[in-house]
Amino acid sequence: MVERDKDVYQQFRQLYDEVHKRIIGEDDTIQCIAIAIFAGGHVLLESVPGMGKTVLSKTISETMDMEFKRIQCTPDLTATDIMGKIRMDEVKKEKVLEKGPIFTNLLLVDEINRAQPVTQSALLEAMAEKTVTFSGASYQLPTPFTVLATQNPVEQMGTYPLPEAQKDRFLFQVNIKYPTLEEEMLIVKSKKSDAKISKIFNPPEILIIREEIKNTVTIPDSILEYGLKIVEATRTRREVATGASPRASIAFSTASKAKAFLEGRNYVTVDDIKSLAFPILRHRIILHPDSRDFGITTDDIIAKVLEHVEAPAG
After folding, report:
1. What is the pLDDT of residues 128-173, one digit of tens each?
2. pTM of the model
3. I want to staple 42 with a disulfide (CB 3.0 to 4.6 A). Which of 143, 147, 182, 227 is the partner?
4. Domain span at residue 288?
5. Is residue 202 part of a domain?
């Protein structure tokens, strides 16, 4: 363990404490969002409405001193509404960029599956390239730049489901579950919504930590191979029409290193791979229709894969 890792570990624990000033529970979701930010990835949040995703996202942005913006997707939302547009400045007599909400550090895209496919595609292209193009000129998005997109898994009317190739652009899919009875009692009684949040990280520090993760955290070949075997196993199950793509293998490498670093380690463990398997893989597996008819889920497949792929010793 290196000294810098110790510092970040303490900061990460403080981040949890700050977020929990407003949010009850959701430890796994908080961890996945933090890992994604430090790994340079994006997160797809799936849950029914009313689960506090906006408050959670805004609170995390405050703990990291990141600029936060939110887009509510509707069928009439256009790419221009998100990206912005070029307009003529009548005073300066020149074209200027009128920036859209995508020019921020943490962008919450609420109900992404309500936006039309052309709008979804424009957003996901920006996520991949970290740039926005107008009239042949590219404009760099702020750094760090992370998208948290939400979708309702139940309601289908008036929605445009994300194609699997576009889902693959997200580092994680996190399924937010209903709170326990005890947690919901605390939520109902809570007066935390206006709690003041302290800044634990800032954008320049996030970028520095990203480089430290790349340069200091190692993943043994045996553990990397374990992750790749898990990905490969998703492609051979009879319940699966299409298994995880090579992006999943890359995700195991980048996300596990970020997770290790935030936990104060400069090496990746088998447990890192196992714990990240579900958020990395669940949106990258396409089931056969027969499997869905029998109530099989992608999480069921991941659980079976983890049972059958032998983990390295040590």
Report:
1. 889 888 777 788 999 999 999 998 876 666 678 888 878 889 999 9
2. 0.90
3. 147
4. 217-309
5. no
